[in-house]
Amino acid sequence: MKIYTKKGDEGETQLVGKKVAKTHERVEAYGTIDELNSFIGVTISKISSKHSDIHNDLVKIQHELFDLGGDLANVTKKENWAVKEEYVKYLENRIDVYWNESPPLKKFILPGGVTGAAELHVCRTVARRSERKVLLIKDEYPIPPDALKYINRLSDYFFAAARAVNYREGGEDVLYERGSDVFK
C-alpha cells in the first residue's frame, strides 16, 4: 500500500459523510487537534522521567485527541461519539492534583520555566486555538456534546501540569512583572 492516494491533489478531502475543500473550517478544526497532538508528542520527549504521571496523562490525551479528531471528521447524524464526559472528569481530577501540588498563584505568569513546563505552555496555547476552531464549526454539523468542555479543560490541564513540572524541577513560574494580584 502506498501512503499517497492522489485523491487530494485538487484541494479536496473526504470527511465521513461529505467531500469538502481542504480549507473547510471542519478540516481546520481537526487539523489543529492533530497539531496539538504532535506538540504533545514533542513534550513527552522532553519531560524528565520524574514526571511519569504527567507522561502517562499525555499519552492518554493523545489517544483521546485521535478520538476527537475522528468525531470532528464525521458530519453524519452520529449519536455514539468517541469523546465522553469521563474524559472531562479525568482531566478535572488531574488538574486538581497538579494545581494543589504547586504553590499558590496570585499573579499572571508568563509561559516558560524549565523545558518541560515551557513545552506544556505551548500545548496550552494550541489547545486554546483548537477550542476556537471547534467553536467555529459547532453550529454547522453536530459535534460531540462534551467536545468543547474537553478542549477547554485541556488548556487548564496543560497550565496546571506546567506549573507542577516547574515546581518539581525546582524552577519557578515566571511572574508577569507589571501585574497586580489577580488570584485570591
UniProtKB/TrEMBL annotation:
Entry-linked InterPro entries: CblAdoTrfase-like, CblAdoTrfase-like_sf, PduO-typ
Q: Does the keyword Transferase apply?
A: yes
Which Pfam families does the UniProt record give? Cob_adeno_trans (PF01923)
Reaction(s) this enzyme catalyzes, per UniProt: 2 cob(II)yrinate a,c diamide + reduced [electron-transfer flavoprotein] + 2 ATP = 2 adenosylcob(III)yrinate a,c-diamide + 2 triphosphate + oxidized [electron-transfer flavoprotein] + 3 H(+); 2 cob(II)alamin + reduced [electron-transfer flavoprotein] + 2 ATP = 2 adenosylcob(III)alamin + 2 triphosphate + oxidized [electron-transfer flavoprotein] + 3 H(+)
Task: Tell me the keywords, alphabetical order.
Answer: ATP-binding, Cobalamin biosynthesis, Nucleotide-binding, Transferase
Top-rank lineage group of the source organism: Bacteria
Where does the Cobalamin adenosyltransferase-like domain lie? Answer: 3-164
Q: In which pathway does it act?
A: Cofactor biosynthesis; adenosylcobalamin biosynthesis; adenosylcobalamin from cob(II)yrinate a,c-diamide: step 2/7
Give the main EC class: transferase
Molecular function terms from GO: corrinoid adenosyltransferase activity
Tell me its EC number(s), please. 2.5.1.17
Q: Which family does it belong to?
A: Belongs to the Cob(I)alamin adenosyltransferase family.
NCBIfam families per the UniProt record, alphabetical: PduO_Nterm
Q: What is this protein called?
A: Corrinoid adenosyltransferase
| Organism annotation | Evansella alkalicola
